[in-house]
Design brief:
It contains 21 helices and 19 strands. Helix content is 51%, strand content 13%. It is of the alpha/beta class. A six-stranded parallel beta sheet has the order 4-3-2-12-1-11, with helices on both faces.
Length: 692
C-alpha cells in the first residue's frame, strides 16, 4: 500500500517532478560552470576589485608613530636643482638622522653606482651603522630591461635588503614579498628587515622557524602564499610572499630639506624606524594599491617607501598588537564545497518556496545584501570570503530558474486557457441545449390565452439574453484564437470569461424568474416539460382515453416517485366502461398536460404545506387513493376523485380548461366537504367529429 501510494503520487505529479529534475540538473550545471570559470582565473579581477573596495571601506587607523618617513619632495628637487641627492648629501642626511637615535634606518634609494661626491663618506656611515639598510633588486630577471637586477651598494651582507613590489595582473600591489630571494643566502625586503630590528631592539624578539617552516616572530607566524588561494587561481607564487592585510593608515612625513636644515626635528627620530626615499611623483617610484581605485578622481598611487613602511608597520602590529598581517584564505576544497552547497540551497529555495517574481526579486536582493554584509564583516576580521562567485551563483540560478518557472507557468497557463475555452464551448452548448429545451414552455403554455402576452415578453427577454451570450462567445473565441499562446493576456481572458459567466447568470436568472411565474400559474409544470422528448414521441399521438391514462401512469411513475416518493400505480384506481372507453383514437398531447396538472396539484399542496395528509409509522405520507372513472350517457365524462379537501387555483382551472378546449371539453371542480372529496370532472359535449 505504501509503495502504491508513492507510485500514485508520482504519476499525479509526474510533469512537475520532471520539471524540477530539469531545474536541479540545470542548476548543478550552472554551479559547475561558474566554478570552472573561476578555476580558470576569469573571476580574479572581479574578486580583486571586491577586496579593493573593502579595503577602502575599512575604518581609518591612527598614525603609526613608530615609523617616520623622510622623503625627497618636488620642492626639494626644485630647491637643490637636482633630481638626485649626491652620496655626500645622503651621508649627511643619515648622519643627522642617526644623531636622533632611531631604532633602524632604511635607505630606499638605489646606490649601486656613485652619484656626485661623497661616496667614501656614505660607505663609511654604512660600515659604522649596523642598523642602516640599503636596497637593491637582486630578484630581477636577467636580460629583461624592465626587470633587470640592480645591485645594492657595496655594504655588508647583513645590511642588504630588497625593495621589490609585487604587482598583480592589473598592476595593483596587493601581495607583499617578505623574501623576494629565497635561495640561500635569502635577502629580506626592506620593511621586513626594519621590523626585525625594531622588534629585537625594543622587545628582544628574534625571527625563528615556525610551523611548516614559516617565519615566526614571537607568537605570530607568517604563512606563505601559494596558488591557488583565495581570489587567486592563476598567480605567480614564487618567493616568500603573503597576501597583505593593508592598513588604512598615514605616516608622519618630513622633507629632506627640513632634515638637512635640522628644522623642527628635535626628538623626531628617537626610538623610531626611519625610511628615506622618494616622495616626488617625478621620480616614478609609485605603485597602485587597493587604496588607489576611485570613481571620482585619478588613482592615487603610493610611494615605494610608503609600501615598505606599510609592511614594517603591519608586521610589528601583528607581533605586538595581534593585528593580522595577512588575510586568511579558504583553501580550494572548502571554496568548491561552499559554492556547491550554496548553489544547492539556492536551487532548493527557488524550487520549493518561491512563487512569483516579487518574491524571487526580494529573495535575490536580500540574499545579496546578507552575503555582502557577511563578507565585509569577515574581511574586518581578516578572513576572505568568496563573495563574487557566490553572488554569480545566486543571480545566475535566480534568473535562469525563475525564467524556467515562467516558461513552465506559461505552458500551464496556455493549457488552462485551452481548457477554459473547451469548458466555455461545452458550457455554451449546454446552455444552448437548455434554452432549446426550455422552448417547450412556449410550445405548451403559450396557447393564445390571456397569459400569452406576458409570457411572450419574458421569453423574448430570455432569448435576447441568449443572443447576447452567443455574441460574447464569438468575441471570446476571437480573443482565444489571437492570444491562446500569450499568457500575458490571461487577465483579459479571465475578464472575458467573467463577463460570459455574468451573461450566463443573467440568462439563468431570467429563466428562474419565468419558472417562478409559471409555477405560480401552473405548479410543477417542469415534471411534464422535463420529459418533453418522450412526450413528443409519435406513440402518444393517437390513443384512446383509456390507453392515454394507462400509458401516462406508466411514464410518469418515475417522475412522481422521485419528486414525492409515491408510486402512482398503487394509489390510482381506474374504473372504465369499456364499451364506451374504446372511442376513436385522438391526439392526446393536450390531455396528458391536463392529467399531469391535476395529479401534480394533489401532491404539490402537501409539499408546500398547504394541506397535510396523515403519515404512517415510518413517517411516510399516506397519500389518498385517486379514482379515475368514465361515465357515459349522452356525453363522455371523465372524473378524477380524491379523498380530503383539495383547494386549487383559478390558474389551474383556466389552464386545464384552455387545453381541453381543443377537444371541446370543459373542466369543473366539485368539492364535497362532508365526505372530504374533490372531483375534477371533464365533460365532452360533442363527439360528432371523428378527428376529435
Amino acid at each position: 500500500m505504501f509503495f502504491r501510494n508513492i507510485k500514485q503520487k508520482i504519476e499525479e505529479n509526474r510533469e512537475k517532478i520532471i520539471f524540477n529534475l530539469i531545474k536541479v540538473a540545470l542548476g548543478l550545471s550552472i554551479i559547475w560552470g561558474i566554478g570552472e570559470i573561476r578555476n580558470r582565473g576569469s573571476l580574479q579581477w572581479f574578486e580583486w576589485v571586491n577586496l579593493d573596495i573593502f579595503f577602502q571601506l575599512r575604518p581609518s587607523e591612527p598614525i603609526d608613530n613608530r615609523i617616520i618617513l623622510v622623503g625627497q619632495t618636488e620642492d626639494d628637487i626644485k630647491n637643490m636643482k637636482s633630481a638626485y641627492l649626491s652620496d655626500r648629501q645622503v651621508a649627511q642626511l643619515i648622519k643627522i638622522i642617526k644623531e636622533g637615535k632611531p631604532v633602524a634606518i632604511g635607505l630606499d634609494f638605489l646606490r649601486d653606482q656613485p652619484i656626485g661626491e661623497g661616496r667614501e663618506e656614505l660607505l663609511a656611515i654604512f660600515n659604522n651603522t649596523p642598523t642602516l639598510y640599503g636596497v637593491g633588486k637582486q630578484a630581477g630577471i636577467e636580460g629583461d630591461p624592465d626587470f633587470a637586477p640592480i645591485a645594492p651598494p657595496p655594504i655588508k651582507f647583513e645590511q642588504i635588503t630588497e625593495a621589490s613590489a609585487l604587482e598583480d595582473g592589473d598592476s595593483v600591489v596587493r601581495r607583499q614579498l617578505l623574501y623576494p630571494k629565497t635561495t640561500p643566502p635569502a635577502i629580506p625586503n626592506l620593511g621586513l628587515a626594519l621590523a626585525f630590528t625594531y622588534l629585537e631592539k625594543q622587545k628582544g624578539i628574534k625571527p625563528e622557524a615556525g610551523e611548516k617552516k614559516a617565519l615566526k616572530l614571537g607568537k605570530a607566524t607568517f604563512f606563505l602564499f601559494s596558488n591557488p588561494s583565495g581570489p587567486y587561481t592563476q598567480a605567480d607564487d614564487g618567493g616568500y610572499q603573503i597576501f597583505f592585510n593593508w592598513r588604512k593608515i598615514k605616516f608622519h612625513v618630513v622633507s629632506v630639506s627640513d632634515v638637512l636644515a635640522q628644522k623642527n626635528i628635535s626628538g623626531l627620530f628617537d626610538n623610531r624606524i626611519v625610511i628615506i626615499g622618494s616622495y616626488a611623483a617625478s621620480k616614478k617610484d609609485q605603485f597602485l594599491t587597493p587604496f588607489s581605485r576611485t570613481l571620482s578622481d585619478s588613482p592615487r598611487e603610493m610611494f615605494g617607501m610608503e609600501i615598505q613602511a606599510q609592511l614594517a608597520s603591519a608586521i610589528i602590529s601583528q607581533v605586538l598588537d595581534e593585528r593580522p598581517v595577512t588575510l586568511a584564505f579558504w583553501t580550494e576544497p572548502w571554496i568548491s564545497a561552499w559554492l556547491i552547497g550554496w548553489g544547492i540551497v539556492i536551487c532548493f529555495i527557488l524550487t520549493f518556496f518561491s512563487r512569483n517574481w516579487i518574491q524571487i526579486a526580494i529573495f535575490l536582493l536580500g540574499s545579496s545584501v546578507l552575503l555582502i554584509i557577511l563578507s565585509y564583516f569577515l574581511f574586518l576580521e581578516a578572513i576572505w570570503f568568496p563573495l563574487i562567485p557566490s553572488l554569480m551563483i545566486l543571480w545566475s540560478l535566480g534568473i535562469v530558474l525563475a525564467g524556467l518557472d515562467y516558461e513552465f507557468k506559461k505552458i500551464l497557463d496556455n493549457r488552462k486557457i485551452r481548457q477554459l475555452n473547451e469548458n466555455l464551448i461545452e458550457l455554451n452548448q449546454q446552455l444552448k441545449d437548455k434554452l432549446d429545451r426550455r422552448q417547450a414552455y412556449k410550445e405548451f403554455t403559450v396557447l393564445g390565452n390571456q397569459f400569452s402576452k406576458n409570457l411572450n415578453k419574458e421569453l423574448q427577454n430570455l432569448f435576447d439574453l441568449k443572443f447576447i451570450l452567443l455574441e460574447k462567445k464569438t468575441n471570446f473565441k476571437q480573443i482565444l484564437q489571437k492570444n491562446i499562446n500569450d499568457s500575458k493576456n490571461f487577465l483579459e481572458l479571465n475578464n472575458t470569461w467573467l463577463e460570459t459567466e455574468i451573461a450566463t447568470d443573467k440568462v439563468f436568472d431570467s429563466f428562474e424568474a419565468i419558472c417562478l411565474k409559471l409555477i405560480n400559474h401552473f405548479p410543477r409544470l417542469e415534471n411534464l416539460f422535463s420529459n418533453y422528448d418522450w412526450l413528443s414521441d409519435e406513440n402518444w399521438e393517437y390513443l384512446t382515453i383509456e390507453e392515454t391514462i394507462k400509458l401516462a401512469i406508466k411514464w410518469f411513475h418515475p417522475i412522481y416517485f422521485h419528486e414525492y416518493n409515491v408510486e402512482l400505480d398503487k394509489i390510482i384506481k381506474l374504473d372504465f366502461q369499456s364499451e364506451y372507453s374504446n372511442l376513436q383514437k385522438v391526439n392526446s398531447t393536450r390531455f396528458i398536460i391536463v392529467f399531469n396538472r391535476i395529479i401534480d396539484t394533489i401532491f404539490l399542496k402537501v409539499q408546500t404545506g398547504e394541506i397535510s395528509y396523515p403519515k404512517n409509522q415510518a413517517e411516510k405520507i399516506s397519500y389518498p387513493t385517486i379514482t379515475i372513472k368514465t361515465v357515459y350517457k349522452n356525453k363522455l365524462k371523465l372524473i378524477f376523485t380524491v379523498q380530503y379537501l383539495i383547494e386549487t387555483t383559478f390558474y389551474n382551472i383556466f389552464f386545464c380548461q384552455e387545453l381541453l378546449d381543443y377537444y371541446k371539453a370543459k373542466l369543473t371542480i366539485k368539492q364535497d366537504k362532508e365526505k372530504g372529496l374533490t372531483n375534477w370532472i371533464i365533460d365532452w359535449n360533442d363527439w360528432q367529429s371523428r378527428d376529435q
